[in-house]
Amino acid sequence: MDFDVVIAGGGPNGLMLAAELRLAGVRPLVLERLAERAAVPKANGLAGVVARLMDARGLYEKVSGQAGPPVPTPFYMFGGMRLHLRDLAANPMYTVLIPQTRLEQILEEHAVGLGAEIRRGVEVTGFVDHGTHVTVQAGAEEITAQYLVGCDGGRSTVRKLAGIDFPGVTDDDVISRSANVRLPTARPDGLPVEGHGDIPPFFFYRTTTGVFIWARLADSLTVNTMEWGEGPDEDVPMTLDELAASVKRVLGADVPLEPPVLDRPPLLRRISGNNTRIAARFRLGRVLLAGDAAHVHAGIGGPGLNMGLQDAANLAWKLGASVHGWAPEGLLDTYHSERRPVAERVAMQTQAQSALLAPGSKVTALRTLFGELLDSDDTRQHIVDTMSGNDVRYEMSTVDHPLVGHLAPELSVTTTAGVVRLAELLRTGRPLLLDLAGVGAVAGGWRDRVDVVSATGPDQPALLIRPDGFVAWAGFDSTGLADALTRWFGAPTA
Ligand SMILES: Cc1cc2nc3c(=O)[nH]c(=O)nc-3n(C[C@H](O)[C@H](O)[C@H](O)COP(=O)(O)OP(=O)(O)OC[C@H]3O[C@@H](n4cnc5c(N)ncnc54)[C@H](O)[C@@H]3O)c2cc1C
């Protein structure tokens, strides 16, 4: 076998998967079609509990440029309505402003530093699943591996060649225009526009004719509009004048837009239509899908990388267990059964937001009612849990404890090495029994797979935590612990 896992696509999710596979002790090969990283601007940042995954891998300070653990944001928005989060009992919405190209660079350095191999300028054009292994066609070369993962984006070749359906909907009537610009009239916290006051940055500002957004990014400003109806043909090149005319239609006022001065090609894009689609299966035999290859949706609120990078964390250790031969039966299938429902939730909430941004008096009425509901802490908590991915709960064990199935809480505990944050104990990417209840002896038969850290801490149960950060078991005594260890990490060694 040439490699354990071939990954088609070296975008953020393929690179994250490669790094996670290295932590799981297997040999991945990333095949990336492009000879050099694309300069085309895509994501501007991360939003949601993915920031905690970055923290758990020691990457948070690098991606955020800030010292210390992630701090939740006091404001966010849903469908262009402001969400005040400061007073919530638990605020799980973290935001990190980082251009996708920089994120990819960090993830590539991380993956290569852990020993992953990345080959650029190599396109995956075919594969055969032999049942026992896969043969991947990469240019003129045939590569053998135990598994193939398609991280090759929304138009995934792997998904299409595998014959996996991509059901969902396409909204044909929405036109999004975006560009890097100079906005001579912008102030740090607001863009004054006649008849509208100061429009805050990053805000989806809805009018009767469309949506206007301006944002201050790391190296530039952007302006976006959304309009509903028919746009120009795809082959008509987008221009700054076209964007200025769209801004005028949406706001009913002129906003001076000037070309930016940048040391990279500026963004200037028109996208007609919007897809919400989820692969029918995330696994077919020895072929799996992750990231945009598995799901696409509107980008409102930035859920794409929150989901894709966590797909990678969910999948890697399960592939590792399968390659090493200790995977309990059905473990790899839980990738589909756990992650597809997450994609369904994201499809639901992004479609709901799109609906709330659409024009029309009925939508305006709905927004008024929705705005009233947002006065309730419970409603805001529900919405922000949904948007951040904090509502994800997997079916885990028979133990009935509120932490089981959820992302592990943020904790500091005292070990023999002193006070440590739980995120720091997860850096190895190995399963962890955080033993706050003197139950560590139960895990003796799993020591080759599961780390045991004895600690004291706040009034917390002992926690069995999977490499993706989710709690597989919790208890103040060992009831159910051996079952949970067996269910997730296989039979104990004699
Ligand atoms: C304008 C825009 C703004 C966005 N803003 C945000 C945001 O702020 N926050 C957020 O979370 N998300 C955002 N997104 C979504 C985010 O960019 C995607 O979710 C993310 O890029 C998906 O990563 P991926 O690795 O799955 O796929 P991709 O980034 O699409 O990477 C796939 C890679 O596979 C390669 N490839 C394709 N076919 C093959 C093949 N056959 N063989 C080998 N290689 C192949 C491609 O060259 C590419 O490098 C935005 C997207 C766009 C377009």
Automatic annotation (TrEMBL):
Superkingdom of the source species: Bacteria
Record keywords: FAD, Flavoprotein
Cofactor(s) required for function per UniProt: FAD
Pfam families named among the record's database cross-references: FAD_binding_3, Rng_hyd_C
GO MF, one example: FAD binding
Location of the FAD-binding domain: 3-349
Xref: InterPro entries: FAD-bd, FAD/NAD-bd_sf, RIFMO-like
Annotated protein name in UniProt: 2-polyprenyl-6-methoxyphenol hydroxylase-like FAD-dependent oxidoreductase
